[in-house]
Amino acid sequence: MTSEELLQIAETTVAERKEFDYELNVCMALGCMSQHSDRVKAALTEEVARSGKRCHVRQTGCLGPCAAGPLVSVGPAGTLYGNVHEADAKAVVDSLGGEPVERLETHLESYFQGQHPIVLENSGQIDPEKIDEFIGRGGYLALMQALTQMDPQTVIEQISKSGLRGRGGGGYPTGLKWGTVAKAVGAQKYVICNADEGDPGAFMDRSVLESNPQCVIEGMAIAGYAVGASKGYIYVRAEYPLAISRLTISLREARRRGFLGSNICGTKFAFDIEIRIGAGAFVCGEETALIASIEGLRGQPRPRPPYPAVSGLWGSPTLINNVETFANVAPILRNGPEWFSSIGTAKSKGTKVFALTGKITNTGLIEVPMGMTLREIIFSIGGGIPGGHKFKAVQTGGPSGGCIPEQHLDLPVSYEALIGAGSMMGSGGMIVMDDTSCMVNVARFFMEFCMSESCGKCIPCRAGTAQMFDLLTKICDGEATHADLDLLIDLCDVVKNTSLCGLGQTAPNPVLSTLRYFEDEYLEHIENKRCPAGVCACSGKTQVHEEVIA
Q: What is the dihedral of CA 221, 225, 226, 228, to 10 degrees?
């Protein structure tokens, strides 16, 4: 593949799209697929054939506002239809060139206002299974530029200058990590994409892989060139069958077009990628546990150092980034590091993809500039709290994060600000809770998750999370004393500071943050044997803590 051939493919793809007067882009990501958007697409295709109109019906990835699915966007008008069913196909096709179908219009202008798609730039715009559509929107141009116009060190410098930080949760500077792997000594080096997304309520990485898998493949190939690796692995959980299917197709297409394999883009660079399917262990999101799983061992973490950048997969230098991090790489090289660093805050550059869920009107996938406030995200993009209820807290960072109350709604979303508030960025889950949520019960829900997902290798995590869960259950049941609360606080300190890996080290965060901001609810359970929200056993109600992420 030469630059001229790449340009020719792009021009041909753009010309083919211009042959149609209209486009109907049907969301075929998992959320809409679960509501039979495949049937909607089939019905639209039949109606287009009947009408004789020059209209292309395309399957796409996630269009964003999942709560309104199944979703169909109409081009070039830009109309977005929601809750579309097979029976609506005739009305949608008949409306092309005329007035939109009013009853299907979503009117979600506020949802998209303020968003800044970089990772999601092609989501809902291309067929994720057709590489030429990706190329038609600038795909693989950055890889071509890197291989033919830059040396590996220049690529690393560009990533460093951009200020990109790892989007997997820790926020480690990406360029610094790449530089460490590049300098490490080893005949074989590896690149791993961590797609083992396991936080309750999180679906960012899954949506990217379902919507635009080629952007991750391109980012990994660029990383491989930069650090001197010839082999890559995408570690994705088995619960993501659609993502795995589209990744498999995309890898085959990338090899067919010459973007993977030997002599990529006519150069001496060789790089290929394999998929490794995880069994769903949350702990395998931790780097060393993930590496052990790929090696065929039990997914358990090991002490660090040595870090994977020096001694990782099969003892070789290994670069590990998550899906969203790799998806940012090509746009940075295409547009320049200054462009990327101009977005966001002083220390948190670029954008962040969030899965907005919970007790909020507009649940879905969003991408916003770093520094946007929680209030803007929840009430402008998210549409506020439904059913006349009041906002109570938002959980960021999944089980590793914390609950942020109303008084911090004007907090800018950045790595440092969230940590200062007792939470963290995490991979991008954002669960909103209203006044029907009991914060003690919320803490218990996340503790139960951590307890169940603990690999059991270290005693503080294995035993400590179980003990904290039991204490939280006693509080919810109205059977706890102040001594139990004191013991819970002590256990938080022990587990946080003595656990082997990040799972145990961050497991106490939901407890600590709810104690910090909602201590009165703990005391109400202990002193008055009453749950203020009326959902715990001490109020005579059946336990419903799972509803926190409904």
A: 120
